[in-house]
Structure formats: C-alpha cells, structure tokens
Amino acid sequence: MLQINMQKKWSKTVVVLSIFIVQIIIYSILFSFQQVNDFIIHHITFPISGFIARITNAISFPVGELFYLFLAFIGIYFLVRLIKISFKKREKLPQLLTQILIFVNVIYFVYMFAWGIMYKKETLTFDSKEIKIDPKILKTIYCEELNKAIYSRNLIKHSGKKTIQFESTLNDYNAEFFKLQVHLKELNWLKNYRFLEHAHYKLSNISMMQNYLGILGYYNPFSVEANLNRYNTNLKQPSTMFHEYGHQMGFASESEANFLAYYLGSKSKNPEINYAVYYKSVYSLLGAIYKSDPYFVKMELDNMHPNIVADRKAEIDYYAKYEGKTSDTFSELNNQFLKANDQEGTISYSKYVELIYYLHQTKKGTE
Question: Which residues cross the membrane (predicted)?
C-alpha cells in the first residue's frame, strides 16, 4: 500500500514536470510566429503592464524588490525543506518536488507573458545583420559625436569635484523624457513599443549591492518599475533612466534600450542629458573603430578634449572601488542570460553602434 502511494506521489511530480516542459515547447513554437507575438504584446502584455504600472507608481518605494525578496524567502524555504527531507523523511520528497515545480511553473508562465515574449518580438523594420559598416563613415560619425560632446560639456558648469556634478535633478530628467518620447515617431523603422503614460523611476534599496555587481539600474517586469542605482555618478543617471524607460516601452534588447536613451537624449535641450548620451556614444564608437584602426583610436585618446579625459578618469576611479570577482561573476551570468534570449550579451553591444550608424545614414539619405 505504501509503495502504491509513493508511486502516485511520484506520478504527480512527473505530471507537473511534464507541464513545465510542455510550457517551454509551446512558447518556443507560439512565439516563433510574429503575428501571434504582436497580438499577445498589444492586447495582453502592454494593457496589463500599463495597469500594474498605475498601481506601483502610486507607491514611492520599489514594490518589485519586495516581490524578489518574497521569491528569495520561498527559495530558501524550499531549499531548507529539501535538505531536511533528503536526510530524514524521504517519503515526502515527491510531494515537496511537486510543490517546487508548481511554483516554478507559475513564475515561468507569468515571466514569459510579462517579459520573455519581448525578446522574441521584432522591433526593427529592417534586418540589422544587413548593415555593412564602412569604417570611414564610422569615423565621420565619431567626429560629429565628439564635437557634440565637447559643445554640451562646455555648457555645463563644473564645481571642481572629481566627478562632474549636474544641476538638474532626477525629476527634471524624468519630466524631460516624457516630453521627448514623442520623437520616436520620427523613426518609422522602430515598431512594437508603447509610449509611457504612467511611469516613474524608483531608487533601488539594494543600490550598494548593485555597485559591487556593476549594475547601474534594472527593469522589473513583474512590477513594471524602472529602478535606478542611487549611487550612480551624475554622468550615468540620465542615460540609465532613459535606458530603463526604454525597457518599459517594450525594448527588451540592451542595445535597443541604449539606442533609445541615445536618440531621445540627443533631442533634449538639457546639456547635461546631451553630454551623458554623447559621452557614451563617443567611447562606444571608439571601441567599434578600434577593430579596423587601433592607431586612430590611440591618437584620439591621446588627444581627447581635457574635460572629457578628466571626466573619464573620474568615472573609472569611482567605479573601480567596487570592481571584483562578484562583479565579474554577475556580468558573465547576465551575459549568458542575454545570449540565451538571442541577445548580444553584455560583453559587446555592437548593435547599439549599428543603430547609431543606421540613424546617421538614414538622416544623410533624407537630407
């Protein structure tokens, strides 16, 4: 009789495990059809996320971090029970494994419809793989970006501290973003995103830990919140905020969110926002140019504008305090996660440079 009961318990475990495997297979097939993706995103994901955002934005602290804390407690609870049962009451093992698998099934189901599907949808009307970058044109773009960075940098008053201090507040950047997002309509080669009506940044309560993990900010798809590291330098905050809002708008790709921050930031009349995005593009473009002409990059770095050099050194010195094995480990884990979702990974966001290149070429063609 005892053996029959055990078989029934194990059979339940197998059934729940099978449901999880079937989920993975169904989503792989279902999300391979772009029309299905578009329908789910525009009629399920976006409406629900908009509703959740209205609720979470009414609360000042990051609600999603409480949810992650809850998940951590559940995980620890299951782990402790699993260890105890493995040594003492093995007959309860199938029941516990069934509970764990049910929990995993639910979280996976919610995640796939809240965020997983975003990695599968098309956001560009062209194939970025077809972009053939001409190194000469890339240098031209770099020179234009450098001039813009120098111009905006000269408009900013510097207090004399090591890291550059901006006069604008995060609320100023937030208000600026909502005015600027309409400019995305000018890019008719972007699709499958939504404009934000009820979104606001949150300052993360685990910012110090994020420093050691090398995280400037993150988007929580469960609570639809853009969370910023409160200890970012002034130079990092504008583009980080715009980047996380890009995720809220539906751009799952890190490169596309980076490009969104760049494009909208370049449209701003606030020199601090301008400088933040141009500073990033200058060094990103130099990294791309290095592949074809390292001598050019060396000459540019050796002759870089002194204010930008000072800002670069201050940034490196500030974040160097938090570098270590923890940061490297998290970076690699995040890199593998992005690659598993058909993204470029954190090691090289070359698609970001490709999109800046494409923007430049389309502007040139229009002119």
Answer: 12-33, 66-84, 96-118
Place of tokens 């890339």: 138
Give the integer Cα–Cα distance in Å for 156 and 153: 5
Q: Tell me how far apart the 2 most distant CA atoms of the chain are, in Å.
A: 83
pTM of structure: 0.88
Tokens of 293: 């002409």
Let me know the angle formed at the C-alpha of 285 by 280 and 286, rounded to the nearest 5 degrees.
100
DSSP secondary structure letters along 159-215? -SSSS---SS-HHHHHHHHHHHGGGGGG-TTB-S----SS--EEE-TTHHHHHHHT-
CA distance 193 to 42: 9
CA 344 to chain centre: 12
What pLDDT, on the 0 to 100 scale, is given for residue 249?
A: 96
- Of residues 239, 285, 292, 229, the one with CA closest to residue 266: 239
pLDDT, tens digit (0-9, with 9 covering 90-100), for 170-209? 999 999 999 999 999 999 999 999 999 877 899 999 999 8
Would you give the DSSP letter of residue 217? E
Starting at the edge strand found earlier in the chain, the sheet holding 201-203 runs 201-203, 225-228, 217-220
Task: Count other Cβ atoms within 10 Å, centred on residue 348.
Answer: 13
- Closest C-alpha among 56, 58, 51 to residue 66: 56
Helix (H) or strand (E) holding 225: strand 225-228
How far apart CA 97 and CA 339 sit, in angstroms, is 29
What's the CA gap between 181 and 261, in Å, rounded?
10
Tell me the backbone φ, ψ of residue 291, rounded to 5 degrees. Answer: -65, -35
- The candidate with the shortest Cα–Cα distance to 244, out of 218, 262, 270, is 218
